[in-house]
Amino acid sequence: IRCWSNIPFITMPLSRTHGKSFAHRSELKHAKRIVVKLGSAVVTRGDECGLALGRLASIVEQVSVLQNQGREMMIVTSGAVAFGKQRLRHEILLSQSVRQALHSGQSQLKDMAIPVLEARACAAAGQSGLMALYEAMFTQYSICAAQILVTNLDFHDEQKRRNLNGTLHELLRMNIVPIINTNDAVVPPPEPNSDLQGVNVISVKDNDSLAARLAVEMKTDLLIVLSDVEGLFDSPPGSDDAKLIDIFYPGDQQSVTFGTKSRVGMGGMEAKVKAALWALQGGTSVVIANGTHPKISGHVITDIVEGKKVGTFFSEVKPAGPTVEQQGEMARAGGRTLAALQPKQRAEIIYRLADLLTDQREEILLANKKDLEEAENKGRLALPLLKRLSLSTSKLNSLAIGLRQIAASSQDSVGRVIRRTRIAKDLDLEQVTVPIGVLLVIFESRPDCLPQVSALAIASGNGLLLKGGKEAAHSNQILHHLAQEALSIHGVKDAVQLVNTREEVEDLCRLDKLIDLIIPRGSSQLVRNIQKAAKGIPVMGHSEGICHVYVDTDASVEKVTRIIRDSKCEYPAACNALETLLIHRDLLRTPLFDQIIDMLRVEQVKIHAGPKFASYLTFSPSEVKSLRTEYGDLECCIEVVDSVQEAVEHIHKYGSSHTDVIVTENEKTAEFFLQHVDSACVFWNASTRFSDGYRFGLGAEVGISTSRIHARGPVGIEGLLTTKWLLRGDNHIVSDFSEHGSMKYLHESLPLPQRSTN
């Protein structure tokens, strides 16, 4: 692995038989031969006079990275006219009479008119300088570049076509990057009606059509067209309802309205789409993307090749179901309909889902068995993840009980008035609970999460997008089907959507227009990746579950081993399992300490010694590598502390603010611990495993949050609600409350409506 700047690259063998274009973005990483078309707006500066050197350098760096991975890169570039215009304008100014400049004065010199420059002359003056710039940039990466200038006639003359083809193949064979441009110094004006006329004919009238023609001639795997817009929109970018089209299919042109051309260049978006479709028909995949945006231009080309959702991808293969964007819109609309139902109706849906979990038990377990067999055969899951993947009759029964709890407790969750204020006479304000909107829940190896989260979303009136791991595909499919069957009794089937497309998690985290909250359920690495990838969308959850049990000097012998055994051994893969056991120093070499160690050995728990604990032992267990370790298995760390204060400090330094426990009979010590430990859940003489929505009486949870905003700890229905303000007036205006106005503020608190009891 080598790395230039912040873009790593790996030299890899690439091979692909050219024929059909790629069906999915995820396949683009297999592209070997790639054409990058740089539009005039990408290469030139905003004043259209000179080149955007920083942007160009970034593009050259990305092309070099891909070239050094073993790919064959070609560039179709604009910019000769702009570069030549800059040179000629400078030359004209210098050629003015020195005497005239001196007699005119500096101010008049600035106002001297510069004649309109003919484009062919600009191209002639700029082409050599543009190529020299490319050569200098590619030399920094030990790559050679070669210039090729073409016209439309070169493609219509069979001998010239063969010569061009042979030249390009020879350059690619020698690991040279060909830089191709239309020979604008001699090219004739484009014919008015010459256009794309089928697979075998394309008029090269701009660099879009040149890139498409070249891509097909050279049997290229991928054509990347960089412009000054994010991609293809269903209406002109900037208009109110314009939406970026993620995937464009042949035949979709009728649904698109094209706007004006870019500020520079021969073609517009319509020309790009026609050229892209022609190339696609010839077997080359195409992506149109923004090459000018400062936040993404530094990695736009490598992102496209890695299969990330950038720009518009042209594909001939339409997916069987809706796109994830369509699913997001369906979830939004379905969620709003769900929120408008009566509480009793939402509860009926959840009761129905609970019944289906037990009625369809055999089908669910059969699907889960397929997932388990596939995971075991492939050997890709660790034992803790296999345990999470497994469903059983008892698990389904517990799920059904939890869902009925949710249904019973959700009667007045949405639309509940939590504050009433009389602002003034006949002007009353209410704060009421409302759904957050659309939730994206990403989970791995835990299919039981799907009905739990679905029930909580239904109870809180939220639309829901679910993205499960491939390892639980069969289980998730049948559980989602049951959720939709339950939703259908009140016509809100679309409110819960299961994302089955090849959507990468990172791409889902960018859908800030469709998703209001992301809730990850899985490994600490998954949570960290999602927190890093989320663009403008809040993430609720915790990255680690480093839970502590502190055994105080006044701990009960009977309680200690029971609590530690349950916290560590009952379900070691859970995020609320014990990971670090803190022992008061005075308990070392006592019968209580010996009982703890004996119990852990019987339960086959591997012990890691903390630094202080290791210093007390002649022959100690393996010393812990880090005190911030979540083992997720039958392993734990033991460390020694001198006091409850030191235990609190250790938890704050090495913990994850998840769940922490004290075992003691001293009430004063316990209260100190409860008040001073800054975690989402803090317990006294109780197992860490109680940190759970079902055990808290919430019915279920969407996860455990360690954040300090909105919701903390096990998150049930209340954590999936926000509020809105309702103001009811009668011709009230703010000016009536001014110093000389006729009205006065009252700001009286009003009693809340009586809550229903279950």
TrEMBL record:
GO cellular component terms attached to this protein's record: mitochondrial matrix
Pfam families cross-referenced by the UniProt entry: AA_kinase (PF00696), Aldedh (PF00171)
Aldehyde dehydrogenase domain sequence ranges: 324-588
HAMAP family linked to this entry: ProA, ProB
Species whose genome carries this gene: Rhynochetos jubatus (kagu)
Residues of the signal peptide: none
Compartments where located: Mitochondrion matrix
GO BP, one annotated term: L-proline biosynthetic process
Purpose: Bifunctional enzyme that converts glutamate to glutamate 5-semialdehyde, an intermediate in the biosynthesis of proline, ornithine and arginine.
Coiled-coil ranges per UniProt: none
UniProt keyword annotation of ATP-binding present: yes
Subunit details: Can form homodimers/multimers.
InterPro entries (UniProt xref): AceGlu_kinase-like_sf (IPR036393), Ald_DH/histidinol_DH (IPR016161), Ald_DH_C (IPR016163), Ald_DH_N (IPR016162), Aldehyde_DH_dom (IPR015590), Asp/Glu/Uridylate_kinase (IPR001048), G-glutamylP_reductase_CS (IPR020593), G5K_ProBA (IPR041744)
Catalytic reactions on record: L-glutamate + ATP = L-glutamyl 5-phosphate + ADP; L-glutamate 5-semialdehyde + phosphate + NADP(+) = L-glutamyl 5-phosphate + NADPH + H(+)
Entry's Gene Ontology molecular function annotations: ATP binding; glutamate 5-kinase activity; glutamate-5-semialdehyde dehydrogenase activity
Name assigned to this protein: Delta-1-pyrroline-5-carboxylate synthase
Domain of life: Eukaryota
Taxonomy of the source species: Eukaryota, Metazoa, Chordata, Craniata, Vertebrata
Aspartate/glutamate/uridylate kinase domain segment(s): 32-290
Keywords: Amino-acid biosynthesis, ATP-binding, Kinase, Mitochondrion, Multifunctional enzyme, NADP, Nucleotide-binding, Oxidoreductase, Proline biosynthesis, Transferase
Listed transmembrane segments: none
Enzyme Commission (EC) number: 1.2.1.41, 2.7.2.11
